[in-house]
Amino acid sequence: MKNFKKGSRAVYACSQRRAPKVHRHPHHDLLLPRALITDSRRRSFYYICSSNWIMSKNKADFESVASDSLRRRLSNASEKRPNVIGFTSLTPMWAGIAGAPAPNENGFEVSISVHDSVYNTDFASTLIPIPAGKKTADPEQIEEHILDAFRKFSTEHLCKFLGAGVTLSLLKEAPNLCTRLWLELDIVPIVFNIKAYHTESLTKPHIKHRISATNSMINSQLQSGAETPTMLTIPVGSLAGLQAGVTGKLPVVRTLDEQADSAARKCLMYYGPNNNPRLTIGPRNQVTVDAGGKIHLLDDLEEYEKSVRPGTWRAVNKFADELREKKIKIGFFSSTPQGGGVALMRHALIRFLSLLDVDAAWYVPNPSPSVFRTTKNNHNILQGVAAPDLRLTQDAKDNFDQWIYKNGLRWIAEGGPLAEGGVDIAFIDDPQMPGLIPMIKKARPGLPIVYRSHIEIRSDLTSIKGSPQEEVWEYLWKNIQLADLFISHPVSKFVPKDVPMEKVCLLGAATDFLDGLNKELSPWDSQYYMGEFRSLCAKERMNELKWPARDYVIQIARFDPSKGIPNVIDSYYKFREILKSKVPGDEAPQLLVCGHGAVDDPDASIIYDQVIQQVSSEPYVKYASDIIAMRIPPSDQLLNALMQNSKIALQLSTREGFEVKVSEALHAGKPVVACRTGGIPLQIQEGKSGFLCEPGDNNAVAQHLFDLYTNKKLYDTMSEYARTHVSDEVGTVGNAAAWLYLAAVLTRGTKLKPNGAWINDLLRAEAGEPYLPDEPKLPREGLDVHAV
């Protein structure tokens, strides 16, 4: 092994598209001991080249070897479908990726460190040659190399990479790397500015640290309680084994494999239970989406552009440009940062607006279980699914008011989002947050406020004097009426007659077709999540989902009184009774009912227990072994895999808001059998993408299931139509256009009077982008939101 040339210099350079800017180490004659510059396996070593870049002398491949016997034990194949081959379990893994130009080698070096959440388990380094006549490596070539390395390692070692730390310098050289890791390999990329040298972190003044060290000399220098120094100096003679003349001062060069390993370890810090990225909440309870921007799911706006029609994209950019130029700040306020449909929409919306460089922030209150019990009761009462004797008591009102007042004070106080100099427009979500509106009006009378109603409000019941619905609505309306606009789902009878029609505008719910819930999963990634689901079922002693040997029918929904789960069980029983003359019992499709929970939904356990009791009772117990009911952890990709691998989707809600799960199923190419409730009929084209039934007509549901399962031509035709006829209005981009339009118009000082119009129609007209005749959109006919 070669020695280091005497007088070599340690440097750090930030990898950029242009020629790198070099920052020289202040100690020009720093010599590095061989022990500090070789990797742990001594297969390659690092040296300081004349152009001041640290690079690898030799290629280093992954060394770990997968077990053939383990592969045989875990492998499985479906006898019913020989083309479906997979493994019952894949090991979750993480990685770190670093890269830097290697000018003396005329290439670009990439290092990958593999981590199992406890230890670094493997490492590889490769030099990618720079094409003749070019000064830098081809970004696509770098991306392809990294993706191929992950694919090969995954298949050889039977693992699934969940997250990867990516160095900022590498991302600058391969700007689409994170987007491709997310969309093609289902790896969550987290970007870190890993420096090419070690330094001591600056510590806060007056904070003392205890530093333990095995070296007694170092320990005596840094006694317990001493402040951490920013520069550690150790007499060279006391460090045995180092070359003569080596300085003991920081910083010390960090080689590329060390940078990759550092990125992997930092990546793991952002993961919590169930191997999901942690939800992060910032000051004043701002939801810092995607770990405050460190998680880069999508860096390429073209991916969003490809997901919508041209008119939608041009309209979005028109209003985004206006808001950027005026430096308009947008604030969203909702009750919970995860679990429900509103939270899913807000995560996707903030992510997209950040890419557009629109200044938008999302805030949530401190959670209160007692208040969430009240808000859930209010929700059930307004939908008409609560017990008739359930009422909103004065004590509950007082507790609710105190809770929102305490949270509102944090946002209205100096420096808060609702104080002077804060947001320029406020969007208030759902019946949990209306108490904010009078506080905002008092603190900032001129601030535009828009109230967004995401739930069904039974206007026929709110109009009955003395009814529980009238009491709840009267309590909420005294605050909501102060808002400038009232946004409702585009569903008849969803707006109580108290709301002036001039304030009413219509907007459906939305989903993100590029996030974990809806993006296309590769067979490898899909089988990982299906294996995770099998493990969850085994852990809870639930029946086994026998996919891929057998098909299954699915309903994805919270365990909620309004989701019609008893009708799902009954419809499945009747479907199996019809089907038994055509298909043997062990080949018939199973039923899967599953969903996430929300932190403000205390009903889930009660409803889940009722479902299990129903399945165990007559006559349903006959098919109980083929019914799987599961509350699953908050993994979007898990729900995605379950939907993509299903045969038919159900949505038998008895009461509903919009229920965008229907559009998610259609986008996945699944024909949907659903009830005519809420916004569901707006999303399904009867007989083309699915079938609609009256709530409780379980015989009709069973017959439609039978027709779809036994008629392949009907199924294939519906599946293709469903996949290709989802409106832009129910996607993140189309939904974002509505919020951008409202923010642009209302911050101009314009008094908007929509008079029950669809926001999408208003914005397309304002942008000069009318709908084309063949452009899919939600039906506008026969709608009377004020009907009683």
TrEMBL record:
A Gene Ontology BP annotation from the UniProt entry: glucose metabolic process
Residues in Trehalose synthase N-terminal domain copies: 333-494
InterPro entries in alphabetical order: Glyco_trans_1 (IPR001296), Trehalose_Metab_GTase (IPR052078), TreT_GT1 (IPR049438)
Signal peptide limits: none
SUPFAM superfamilies in the record: UDP-Glycosyltransferase/glycogen phosphorylase (SSF53756)
PANTHER family: SYNTHASE (CCG-9), PUTATIVE (AFU_ORTHOLOGUE AFUA_3G12100)-RELATED
Assembly with partners or alone: Homodimer.
Stated name of the protein: Trehalose synthase
